[in-house]
Amino acid sequence: MLIRLNVAYRWHRPRDILDTEDPINELDAGTVNRLLRRRYATDVEDIITPLGGGMFEVYVSDGKGGRTERVRGRDRALKLLRKAAGQ
User: Up-side HSE of residue 42: CA atoms within 13 Å toward CB?
Assistant: First the structure.
């Protein structure tokens, strides 16, 4: 699962995209659920909307506002989110 942080967490900044399966992030299932439940993080699947035909609509936030962009492919959508977060 991928999550986007809404608030700073440990050494990560807001809007960072974390792979919860990656051991470097040290996020267990309980921590992930707590972050999601408290709205400290958002599941990436809630930010990336499939439009069909391989197209995705991505809500990109710079912390001051947001916009949506359309891209082809989930990998490009994740790349766009990471770029907006400065990762």
Answer: 15
CA dihedral 25, 80, 74, 42 (to 10 degrees): 50
Q: Give the per-residue pLDDT at 55.
A: 95
Residue 31 corresponds to which tokens in the numbers above? 């921590």
Cα(60)–Cα(69) distance, rounded to whole angstroms? Answer: 7
**What percent of the chain has pLDDT above 90?**
46
CA atoms of 5 and 29, how far apart (whole Å): 15
In contact, 5 and 18? CB cutoff 8 Å: yes
| Strand, helix or coil for residue 31 | helix
Confidence at residue 63, expressed as pLDDT on a 0 to 100 scale: 61
- DSSP β-bridge partners for residue 2: 19
